[in-house]
Each structure stands twice: as structure tokens, then as C-alpha cells.
Please model this.
Amino acid sequence: MKILEKMSSIDRRVIFLLVALAVIIPLVANIGLPSRPGKYTIEMYGFIDRLPAKSQPLLIDATYSPSMMPELQPMLKAILRHCFARKVRVMLMTLDPNGPALCEAALREVAPEYNAVYGEDYVFLGFKPGSSAVIMAIGENVRQAFPADNYGKPLSEFPMMADVRNYADIPLVVSIAGSAITQGWVIYAGTRYHASVGAGCTAVSTADYYPFLQSGQLVGLLNGMKGASEYEWLNQRNGYSTARREAGKGMDAVSIVHLLLMLFIVLGNIGYLAGRRAAQKQ
Amino acid sequence: MRSITVIGLILLGSAAALTQPMPAAPADPAPPPVQPPGLVTAMDTPNDAGNSISVDWRPSPDEAQGLVEGYVVYRSESAEAPESLWTRVGYVPYGLNQSRDQSVPENGMDFFYRVRVVSRLGASAVSQASNPARSSEQWYNSMRTNALIASLLFVAIVVYFITMAQKGQHLFVRRIAGLSAVEEAVGRATEMGRPILFVPGLSSISDVATIAALNILGQVAKKTAEYDTPLLVPNRDPVVYTVAQEVVKEAYSEIGRPDAYNHDSVFYLTDSQMGFASGVDGIMTRERPATNFFMGMFWAESLILAETGAATGAIQIAGTDAIHQLPFFITACDYTLIGEELYAASAYLARDPKLLGTLKGQDWSKALIVLLLVAGLALSLINPGVRGFILNILTVG
Amino acid sequence: MRRQIPLMLVLVLGIFFFIQFFVPSRLSTNIYQVSLQWLILISAFAIVLAIGSLVNHHLLKIKRRREHWPYSYATLAGLVVMSLLGILGRFPGLGLLDEIYYRLYLFVQAPMDAAMFAILAFYMASASYRAFRARSKEALLLLVSGFFIMLGVIPLGALIWDRIPDIAEWIMMVPNMAAKRGILFGVGLGITATSLKIILGIERSWLGGGGK
Model:
């Protein structure tokens, strides 16, 4: 009985140690917990999967800072892998001044895996300040917002950009963001300019976007690390990627920490109930 | 579905290189013609600062066939002006049939508008000129009448209760445990010979939660002055730092202990969110304050602060209107002021009838809102058509 | 007099900006824009005072040899080095300093920030262990809801029962949202009432007074 009672007062250092192990072990060891993609991840994946190869490019906006990298960077890489594997062209841009370095890092890692050629398979438009003003400017003409790419080369020099004027020529806009800018994409690009918009966001802000999914204003939504992990899983299952599942590993750690938390809560309650019973007997 | 249509069109090779939706350029072969938009109407944009005219038009009949790309809006001083004197003032994609010209050069002067439809295949056609329209500035925004009525009603209710309170009417205020504990918390710190830590949130001065926190700081500082207990007030925002310093200094003066005020007790740490959290954590572990106050706006650092404080064994009183952080404070603090209790705190502590009157006014206003909510809900259930009407009344322009 | 001037300013400006909200004219919007610029200017001056406070605080600590005083050198060194690198790195020919600044930010400050943020996971574990106790029926309900949410956000939840993510979503969207909105009503009125109290001069705690 004493042992049961003690369960309600486990030393916090023991909890910290176990949490640390629950995070580190899945990151080091290859656990590979099974994953079942959610409805909104499948919808997003399906939309990109149905785009014909070598068609007009889709537009990815990666607007986030380094603090959101663990959740959002694997998302960007998974979508890039999907596109490059299927030869779907990509325009990448960012509305965050911290974004260019992160976009570059993703492109440098993923493009060589698929021998994707700059200017033919993808273009990096770079950073542009102005948030919703930029989104609206693209609605008129993408060259108005980005006369040149990130490296100063005019967009007209890229063959893949020849027929791209505005959202009418962009089959999908994907907003991967850690801020409310996704709402800007939905309102301006989606509602005003009729673009199809998909989103990837941090887990904590997912609830903000459910109304847009319900109203059909978003074609799909990747929910934080879980969404990224599901996308990676779909890529692997369909043979589009053999790369290490970065978010998958992270998700293993997240899952195990959640299970550990639940275990602690159960133990705490057993201890609490045992203690209460003992007090009643006395 | 639309995207697939777009891709289909592109695959058919039908999308010509149209970089600017300008008047029809000679193309080979000539694109099929498109029908112009119908009646164009222009009017002064209501409730604005002037220099703006709103234009709307009947869409081109070809829009229903999915042939229209968008509409270009032009302005001129004369309906009969030659092509070169029409200035392009806007572009909207298909599906929209209104635009706002926000660059009208002069108020009170007649301007005319024309709308050119641009087809997906590169053809275009221009409408007839609109009626003349003059822009003007307004001195009252009629779209905000609802907000004005609600504000005045709220002020009237509050003023009524303040008057009642001043006349000596007893106003009951329920006990708020967290605030009742303030005296005890200060006393405990005094007995233990340890300082009191007060964090006025991490937000700026424009956040009303910060102002509420500074109001509470004023009350707490008066008690620390009375008991001669050391007070520590770390700050993240430079403006809040300067105001907090004044608040504490004045509180010490008011109690008649200006000499006891330590200039170094209110200090600035850093602007970095996590840097601030680590700084405050450091203060808590080194100085071991007997009581920690976390009042105002907090974000992800709330639990980091409150858990460290709990580990040092301090009594902790938190108050915030950041809904996402409330569970963390409730878990790790002894007392938590939830939402509006933060705003009621100063009145509760000061026990000033006028301040208590405002609390009563708040309660009655809330009761009124609940009543309206129930009435609105009942009406929408009886007649769903009423819903739009109610939403319209409640929308602030 | 020291009290009367700020109170008068707050009253006049408070009423003015209340009226301004309902007046869309050019003059009114221009004044509003100018006031926003003033706010930025005031913040800029306040930063000088704030840095002064930081420096003063640490110099005093060093001078009086208070506990842990050597760490104050680290704070002051960080302040000086980062400021100098950030400012000088903008000048032509000194790009190297900018690069050092960038690397210090990326490899020192960002990981320290991330580490501090990561502590949250540990604290969350220990806090939920302590807080989630089935002390009453309501607490039991909270506990069960918490379990559904935790299972709903990890892939295992859907593998156990495919309805778990839907239940988690419903809990978040319906009961959780209703409670949040209820609190928000009170918060909204509290904000308005606090502003009104300050404008009318009833609330004077921010001046150090007690409503007298």
C-alpha cells in the first residue's frame, strides 16, 4: 500500500530524467512507430499527387523563423520531395526575413536527391516584405511582387516561368507558416483571386484553421510535426522518397513523451486514490 | 476543380503569353471576341477620409462561360475623353464586380469610370463610361453607430453605479481568493526577510492587461512600502519599465516612505522572451523571493516561470487574460486571477467605492450581453433568416 | 500639479481618441497616424533608459561585490559585443563583423533560446503529473478529456481507435471553445472598463495612487 501511495509523489527530477530519455532514445534509435495519415493530410497530398508532371508550378510560401523549424522545415522538405519526385514544378518564396536561409537549406538538401534543375524544376523567389500586400500583388502579376528571383535574375529568363502570370496559372498555393499569414493567403489569394490554398502550420495554431477546412477554403492542412510525419510516410509508401523520416523521428519522440505523460498521470491517480483510501481507513 | 480547369486550359496550350491585361494586342490568330461589362456605376466611398470612389459594374455575359480573366478599371475627367486620357486605377479578377479607386486626385470634382473586360484568351472589350462621381470626406462613420450606442450604454451603466456607490450604497463584491491573499503574501515575505517578485507581464504598455498589472503593482508596492519588504520588478518592455518605476516610486511616496524606495528594485532585463524567462528564473533561484506575482500578459514562458517559482517554495499569485496560459498558472500557482479578475483586482484591493461601482457596471453589462445572446439565439432558431440581420447589426464597419 | 497634468492629459486624449474612432476624416486619420509615430519615438527613448537601467544594475552589482557578481561581466560583455558587431557590421568593408554577429546569433543565442523553450516539455510533464488528479467528478471529466486530446494528437491514437482524433477535435472545437469565449466576454468588458476608469481618472494606481 505504501508503494502505491508513493506513486503520488514521484520526485520531479525522476520525471525530468524519464522525459529526457523519452525524447533522446527515439531520436537516436530507429523506432519507427506506425503512422496513419489524417484526413486533411491525405487531402493535401492527394491534391499535389493529382497535378500533372511538368505542369504550371505550384507556389510554396515558407514563412517561419528558426524557432519553428522542427515542426515546419520537415513539412517543406516532404512537399518538395513529393513535387520533385513527380516532376511537379515549384516556386518557393518567403514573407519572413529569417526565411531565405531556411528555404535555401531545404532546397540544397532536397533538389540534388532528385536532380532537380534550378530554373526548370524550381525557382526560389526569395523574401519580400509586405505580407498581404505581396499576396495581392501576385494576384495581379507575380512579376510585380518578384521582378527577379532570390539571386537577382529576372523571372523572364526562366523557361518554367514563361506562362505564369498570376494565381490563374498557379494550380496550388501552399502556405507553410508559423504566423497568421496563412489567413492572408486564404482571404486574399483564395477568396479574392480564387486560388486553391493548402496550409501547413504549427500544432498549437491548428485549431485556428479548422473553420477554413470546414468551409472548403483550404484544400488540406498539415498539422505540425504530426502532419509532416504523415506526409513523409505517404511519400515513402508511394516510393517518392527514401530519405530519413525527420518528422517521423520527432513524432516518435512526441508519441512516447505523450504516453509517458499519461503513464505518470495514471500513476499519480493510483497513488492519490490509495492515499485517500488509507486516510479513510484511519 | 477550378485548378483542374486551369491546368486543362494550359495543357491545351490555350494560355497565350499575356503578361499585362491591357487593351487587345494584335495576335495571330485573333482571339475570339469578348462581350463588354454592362452598366458601370460610380459613387463616393462612404465613411472614409475622401479621395476614394467605389465603382461597380454588371459582369460581362461571357463570365458565366468561364471565359473571363478579370476586369481593368480606368478613370478619366471626361466621359468622352480619348483613350490616352483614361488612367488605369485598378484590376480585379473574375467573380468580383466592384473596385475602389483610392487615388482620386481631388475631392468634389467629377470623374468618370470605364471597365475593360479581359478574356482568358487575350481579347478585351471596354464598357460605356459611368455616371460622374465626386469623392468627399466624411466626419462620421455611420457603420460604427452600433459601437457608439454600445459604448455609450456601457458608460451610462458604469457611471450610474459609480454614482450609486458615491451615495454610499453598499455594493457586494464576491471574495477573490487570490487577491485576499495579497496581504498575507506580503506579510509572509516580511516575516521571512525575503523579497517579493512582481512580473508585470511580457507585453507592451498598449496592452490593457499590462496597465491592469501596473495598477496591481501600485497596490502591492504600497504594502511593501508599509512593511519595508524588498520588492523586485523585472521588465521586458522598455516603456513598461519606465512606467513601473514611476508607479513604485509614487506608491512609496504616498505611503510616506520615499526614503525606503530602492531605485534598483525596478529594472530592465531583456527584450528576448526566453532570455527574460531565464533571467527571472535565475532571480527566483538566487534571491528566493517569498512571494511571486505574475500579472499581465504571458505567453509560452508562463509555465517555465511558475514551475521554477513553485520549486523555490514561494507563494505564487498569477493573473492573466491569456486564455492559453491560464491552465499552466492554475496548475503551478497557489492563486490565479482568471481573465476579468485581473481587471477587477485594483478595485478589489483599493476598496474604493468608485472603483467598485465600475465592477458592478461591468457585471450588469455582461448580464445584458448574455440576455441579448439568448434572445438572438432564440430568434435565429425560430426564424433562421433573422441570423443575417442580427450579424449585420453587430458588425462594426 | 504632478498628478493633475497626467490626469488631464489622459482625460483629454482618451476622449479625443474615442471620438476619433468614429470620425473618418483626413484630419482625424492623420492625427491618429502621427500619434502612432509618437509611440514609436517614445519607445526608442525608453530603450535608452532601459539599457541604462541594465548597465547600472550590473555595474552596481560589480561595485558592491554582490553575490554572483562576476556573471555581471558576462552580461555587460554580451551587450557591448553584440551591439558593436551589429552596428559596425553594416559599414562597407566590415562584412566579417556582420558574419560573426550572424553566427553568434545562430549558434549561440538561437540554441540558448531553444533550450529554454524546450524546458517547457519537462515542466509540462511534472505539472500535468501533479494537476491531473481525479479529486472530483469534474476533475475526472477533465482527466478523461485530457487523455482523448493527448491520444488524438499522436498517431497511436488513431491506431487504437480511429474515432479518437475526431473526439479530440470535437473537445477542442466545442466545449473548449465555448469556455474560452465565455472568458473572453469578461476580458473584453474588463478591458473597456479599465480604459474607462483611467480616462475618467477614477483609477489612479498607475500613478502610484490608490484611487483617492
